[in-house]
Amino acid sequence: TGSGVFKFTSYSGVKKWSEVNSGLKNLNVWSLTISPNYATDRTIFAGTDGGVFKSTERGEGWVEINTGLSSLHVWSLAISPNYAVDQTIFAGTYEGEVFKSEDGGITWAISNAGLNKSYVRSLAISPNYETDQTIFSGTGAGIFKSTDGGITWTSVNSGLTNLTVQSLAISPDYAADETIFAGTLGGIFKSTNGGTTWTSVNTGLKDLSVPSLAISPHYEADQTLFAGTGIGVFKSNNGGSTWRETTYTGVS
What we know:
Blueprint: E1 6-11, E2 14-19, E3 29-34, H1 38-41, E4 44-48, E5 51-55, E6 63-64, E7 74-79, H2 83-86, E8 89-93, E9 98-101, E10 109-110, E11 120-125, H3 129-132, E12 135-139, E13 142-146, E14 154-155, E15 165-170, H4 174-177, E16 180-184, E17 187-191, E18 199-200, E19 212-215, H5 219-222, E20 225-229, E21 232-236, E22 244-245
Antiparallel strand pairs: 1-2, 3-4, 4-5, 5-6, 7-8, 8-9, 9-10, 11-12, 12-13, 13-14, 15-16, 16-17, 17-18, 19-20, 20-21, 21-22
């Protein structure tokens, strides 16, 4: 949030959000990414207007990790599924740069050859990154794809009628289905060929500005994903073919 990071806990029946900003020098937080091995390494990263911060204490304490990061407005983060071994994390910035760290954020190197100099609002990394080295970036000039671990990027915008990309969600079974979704200022687009072509999938979506997307970890079986919009959350359980508005009925 604009007031830092908050953490939700449930203990002895008490559910609450608590501020966890110790060591966080900039409270304008744009992005968070969590280690695939969080249960053991307790690691989480935060992208802010003051660079990247890292916590190895489940968010209870943060350390600034900006060495080599020349653009400090970090709008997006993506972590390698094999982070425990390769220690790889990517950061996308408002200035249109992508940076890569292969030592858990201790040092960063620019990684944006072929990338248009437009803000990088979202990053999506392949679940099979260890073997396919694939990562996507959603920018103000469309979508770019790298298949060499971010060394070089290629524009993949065929069929994308709105190039202001705000969010990306990649299928957990990407190796088999090559499916990825993009949320833009003109709705949601879907690719089933690794970004080569895109198709609009907006039936039932009442707001076409989509700053956030989340895909089910069991997408192959349940075909479920969620879209966050300016008027609420929409859900699809048929791979984006149709959408319906969700209603929260829980206790506030």
